[in-house]
Amino acid sequence: MEYFLAIVSVGIILFIVLHLRPLKDHEVRALGEKRRKQTVDAYFHVDSTELTVNPVFKKSLNPRGVFYRVDLPLYSVASSMAGLLKYKKHEWIVVAFEKQKQVNHLWVNKGHNNSSASIHLSVDQVLETALENGYSSVLMFHNHPNPNPKRYSCNQPSKTDLDTALLWASTLNPRGINLVKYICERGRHYRYSFSPSESFMPLGHFTDIINNVNGCSKLGNFQLHMERVF
């Protein structure tokens, strides 16, 4: 036991000594990516509580597709949209436009049947709407009607869902628009695609902050290494 403790103590001391140096460039980048991911994830954190939506608004949805003005916090929009699509027997699709953690525009249209949620807007029209109104994110929701909830789970994306997410992200992300996609089933939401634009909370902001303190003190260096590793 004493031998084991001695080895552990030596290992800890060696780790400390080897991590008193400043971070190298690739380590600064790795830590910056870690901080950026944590910050972006926190920005898009949403409530998982099931919400009830105004039944009058829900019943009035235009199946052909219409823009609606709303005032929803980003934190609750996923639960609100899941509530909006709950009990729908056809597939519906909702596109929410976000900036500064607020959603002010929705597009909603009905799908062709209970297995297709084709949007009546093209990706270029969605991009144009986002850019003209200064939105930074597009959040897309569609439901998977479940014929037998006791037997089946319909909360997983199809191959078409995944392929479409990649296609839309390749158009929106380079223009500075984030894309988040959800499946809704029985009032619950399930995120299956998350594609933040590189220009949203850019990595350089985080690496600049790290570089400003990197190498200023051995204790500071060690703290940066600890944050990077653990």
Structure characterization notes:
A hairpin with a 2-residue loop joins strand 5 (178-185) and strand 6 (188-195). Strands 1-3-2-4-5-6 form a 6-stranded mixed β-sheet, sandwiched between helices. It has 230 residues and is of the alpha+beta class. The protein starts with a helix and ends with a helix. It has helices at residues 2-18, 25-43, 55-59, 74-85, 123-132, 159-172, 203-213, 218-229, and strands at residues 66-73, 92-99, 102-110, 137-143, 178-185, 188-195.
Helix content: 40-55%
Protein structure class:
alpha+beta
C-alpha geometry: elongated
Number of domains: 2
Task: Note the gap between the termini.
Answer: 27 Å
**CATH H-level superfamily title of the largest domain:** Cytidine Deaminase, domain 2
CATH classification class of the largest domain: Alpha Beta
How are the strands of the biggest sheet laid out side by side?
Answer: 1-3-2-4-5-6
**How many E-type strands?**
6
